[in-house]
Fold:
Amino acid sequence: MGLPLTLFPPCSAKIVELPLFPLPLVLFPGAILPLQIFEFRYRMMMHTLLQTDLRFGVIYSDSVSGTADVGCVGEVVKHERLVDDRFFLICKGQERFRVTNLVRTKPYLVAEVTWLEDRPSSDGEEDLEALANEVESYMKDVIRLSNRLGGKPEKEVQDLRRNLFPTPFSFFVGSTFEGAPREQQALLELEETATRLKREKETLRNTLNYLTAASAVKDVFPTS
Structure:
């Protein structure tokens, strides 16, 4: 990972300029992100956004791997100006992008980006639907066992897909993997829905195996 200073995208790619906000988290299309803006440079960015289209790029950054070159547009759907010129924002994830050229770094990052869309899958639509349904089933089992281990009622988990097509559902699943931002970033960067769903299925399967073992131990050695 690491922002490119100069890359040469295909001529057919539409290039736009986008202000960037590096954060230690990953935003997915469709996800909701609350933010409080207090740094001076990002307060400056907000003043600019309020006069334009209220859209900026959220891009994952940490001290180990640096700043990613694939992120997600955050659109401000609600904002409140607080004391000391701070802002409280509610943002919604929109389209993904790839940074192709860093335009400037001060007072905040601005980059040229191209939009990312999933490529048509070699798997048929029916296979994608079946895969999405499998992932949903694993999610329900993970939630059920997590609730059991946490002492919460084991009630039936409701519909998680909410009529979402496989691609937006794959983004929703990725957004639930909180606490694993590098894995989330890898999922965000994938450009095939089937590949993303398969990777999420494997993660959920491993999580379910762990929770099943933990639940068995709890049954054998219940706490008093």
